[in-house]
Write a structure and sequence with these properties.
The protein is an all-alpha fold. The chain contains eight helices and no strands. It has one domain.
Length: about 180
Amino acid sequence: MNSSEHIRQWAVKARNAEKEAHKILSKYESSKSRVVVLKDLLKKLDALPIDVKDYFSEAIECLERDLRRAASVMSWAGFFQVFSEKLYAAHEVDIRSLRTKWNFKDLTELKENYAEAQILDVAKEVKFINKALLRVLQGHLATRNQCAHPTLYKPSLNSCIGYVDEMINKTIQYT
């Protein structure tokens, strides 16, 4: 066996050992190995446009670098992109009839001209979501806002991993 074959075998063994270590360490709260588990969720987003998947890839990279607030902002952005597209496709006419004073020519203008909180409210009014889900999404938006704006809020690694996980799972529900 030549030396390049030995190196290849050692590389395979090292990758396998790393995977096993992450599986074991991911069970402990203080371990950043839990972030690796989130990467498995990304596979479920393969059908989405690359820009949406990129939001979540960046969110996970932010977690790996301990940039928790940025991770939260990126994961909300990925979720809201998919959510608003589905809402618009299903209920554009309803939104226009309920919000006669809203002026927008397309989804991009809707999102530019009106706050995400307003869009969530209208989603409930057109029965795209129910009251319970509205409250959940309002809470997620509040977390995103705390992370995106100057505040003293510093999410723990645990809460941030949970937030990113929740946003990925919510996005999967709308795909």
